[in-house]
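re: ur msg from earlier - yeah i can do the iron/sulfur cluster complex, just paste it... oh wait u already did. ok heres what im feeding in:
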Amino acid sequence: MPTTINRQIVRIEESLCNGCGLCVSPCAEGAIQIVDGKARVIREELCDGAGFCLGVCPTGALTIEVREAVPFDHDAAAPIIAEKQQNYIPQHCFNCGTSEDQRALLPVRQQGRSEWVCTRCLPALIHG
Ligand code: SF4
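and the outut:
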């Protein structure tokens, strides 16, 4: 039995999850999969609790909680990250179309949509 620690980890509220799968690809470590129509953290050791999946969920089913879990396993995640890097599809800023290869993107929610915004366009969203 692996030792557990108290740490941050993604929590999925099953009653809110519609199984859309939008949270699967933002997880670089492959911790989230759709199982029987619902998102699940399939291996706790692959979830680093960073929460990059949170911003894309259209229903608010994803949160971060602190609880007992096995530690994040960098060695287990490394080959999955490398494999996903080979097939990744760059996302684009909803406002200007800039690719994440050119500028860092952040997830935003507005009017019920989950979108990506680049660091150049973000200040205009904040300050209007
Ligand atoms: S993005 Fe949200 S609603 Fe969609 S599968 Fe993931 S947890 Fe469920």
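cool cool. The two ends are 52 Å apart (CA to CA). ping me if u need the other ligands too
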